[in-house]
Amino acid sequence: AQDEVRLAIVGLGSASYALPSIKIYEMILSASMEPVVAIHPSATISPSVHIGAGATVMAGVIINASATLGNNVVVNTGAIIEHDCVIGDHAYVASGAVLSSGVTVGECAYIGAGAVIRQGISIGAESVVGAGAAVTADARRAEQSCHVPLERAAAGRLGRFESRAEDAQDTGCGYRQGRGHRRRVRWAVEK
To answer: What angle do CA 8, 10, 16 make, to 5 degrees?
Structure first.
């Protein structure tokens, strides 16, 4: 009994598809194990930040006062989360994203690399903010926002986004391949 494993880390971050990470997190909990919070030594985190179970904070991340990270959140390299932000469970903040003060990110949402979100904005659960987006308006639940500045690209349950490329084929990993580029078309999260 002394050799029994009690701690576990998800160790799987998928920017394109959250379900595997969620399933591993739930398996850890169902096995009566404790999900470990992983924080890179070069991350700068205010002492007043609350970090949920199983969260991963990568190199060079800055998280300022009174921010809250939910369970199983990934904050990738060099992202900045300003004071009073709230990041929901299973959300993913990609490299170099900047969340200004008071931003709320819903459960299972994805914030793309280099996206900048203006203070006080709410990003709905299961929404996708594309790389480099400048977000100046709230994004509703399961909305895809991929333009600079933000334009509402699609709304509705994730998994129903359609690619503009007529010749696109589903790659099975959350992207549709076509015309030599990749477009996000689904991020199915089972409840």
So the answer is: 175
